[in-house]
Amino acid sequence: MKFFLYADHLNPVQLKRRAPEHRFLYLATLADHTIKFCRWSSQWRCGLASIVPSPGEKVWGGVFEVTDEDLTLMDEFEQDVPQGAYRHLQITVLNEAGSKELVTTYAANPIGKFKAKDHYLDWVMKGLTQWKLPQEAVQQWESYRPR
User: H helices within the chain, ranges in order?
Assistant: First the structure.
């Protein structure tokens, strides 16, 4: 299955634990969406990222091939939020060549507005660096830092 991963899912340590058989395919963007922190994480003690519709904006991430076993593990690893807090969603992403592709991703069932914390954002940044996301993506995530 082709799965669009973003935020903390891109961190190489987390990805290896949650989807050990993953295979990176390409960088991609999800148009007309942005990141909101609409779920609380007891593990991180801050808001967790999710995609939400937002005309004119985009979310950077990577498309990975994941196995059924990977998908089961990824679903189980959402332990620090209640079951059903995140759902699978079919989306259309643009690859680096500008072609559209239908893939699956996670989206939160929002419960409120929360803030991210530096330690969570640092974890996300390691993933952005690992997969060589462009400076635009890094700047987007830096904008979420508490002021």
Answer: 12-18, 68-76, 118-130, 135-142
Query: Which residue's structure tokens are 């992403």?
Result: 93
Report angle CA 130, 79, 22 to the nearest 5 degrees.
35
Exposed e or buried b per residue across 75-110, where buried means at least 16 C-beta atoms within 10 angstroms of its C-beta: eeebeebeeebbeeeebebeeeeeeeeebebbbbee
Name which of 1, 3, 4, 12 is nearest 128 in CA terms: 12
- CA torsion sign for 13, 121, 28, 66 is positive
54: alpha, beta or left? (left if phi > 0; alpha if psi -120 to 50) = beta
Pair 31, 146: CB distance under 8 Å? no
pLDDT tier at 79 (50, 70, 90 boundaries)? low
Residues forming beta bridges with residue 47, ordered by sequence position: 40
- CB burial of residue 42 (10 Å; 0-12, 13-18, 19+): exposed
147: confidence class by pLDDT, cuts 50, 70, 90: confident
User: Using an 8 Å Cβ cutoff, are 25 and 81 in contact?
Assistant: no
